[in-house]
Design a protein that fits this description.
Elements lengths: L7 E4 L14 H12 L5 E3 L4 E8 L2 E8 L6 H11 L7 E7 L7 E5 L7 H10 L5 E6 L9 H5 L5 H16 L1 H5 L3 H10 L2
Parallel strand pairs: 1-4, 1-5, 5-7
Antiparallel strand pairs: 2-3, 3-4, 6-7
């Protein structure tokens, strides 16, 4: 199996203070925590419609990206940066909130559909591919399709937020292997926990 090192980690979310603490911003929370751990600031790269930060993870140069468009235009930033640095879809990890997982759960997968997630839908369309990797951070489902939009744009309870933060920590602990492309190893580890 060919191991592709990850060169770009995209955290999905909506910009602006009013969205900062909402469930839909779990992807932002992930890359923010990672940048803080590495003590690297995000810089506004307006030509890529994103905040970008460069890290060294497991000996690889990895860019973190936070699109500053709204969620449903995330593909604009991802495709702009990926084209500029010639990063192919299978070298990209997209981190996003996942309704089908409980808070505290985190799963890694490659390819697949968008399951109604507007950020993923736009990235697939902009890249012309679904072959990128996803790190899915559980936020739970409100069990009523009609209130999903308000739910993802709402704040998690204190205990849910703690569980989500715990899941983010679990995933960051495995990040060296993820970046090195050892995805099946990480899947076994993450999918066996909690």
């Amino acid at each position: 199996m060919v191991h592709h090192p990850i060169k770009l980690i995209v955290g999905l979310g909506n910009p602006g203070a009013d969205h900062e603490e909402t469930r839909h911003n779990a992807g932002y929370w992930f890359v923010d925590r990672l940048a803080r751990q590495h003590k690297q600031p995000f810089r506004n790269e307006s030509r890529h419609h994103a905040l970008v930060c460069k890290l060294n993870i497991a000996g690889n140069e990895v860019r973190l990206l936070k699109p500053i468009t709204y969620m449903n235009r995330s593909g604009q930033a991802v495709s702009s940066l990926a084209n500029y640095f010639r990063i192919s879809p299978n070298d990209i990890l997209v981190v996003h909130d996942e309704l089908d997982l409980e808070p505290g759960q985190v799963r890694l997968k490659t390819g697949g559909g968008h399951a109604g997630h507007n950020g993923l839908r736009d990235i697939m369309s902009a890249l012309g591919s679904r072959d990128f990797h996803r790190l899915r951070i559980g936020i739970d489902h409100p069990n009523d399709r009609n209130i999903v939009v308000n739910y993802v744009l709402g704040r998690p309870s204190k205990s849910d937020r703690e569980a989500i933060d715990g899941a983010i920590d679990d995933a960051i602990e495995c990040l060296d292997e993820v970046v090195k492309g050892e995805l099946s190893k990480v899947m076994n580890r993450l999918h066996g926990s909690r």
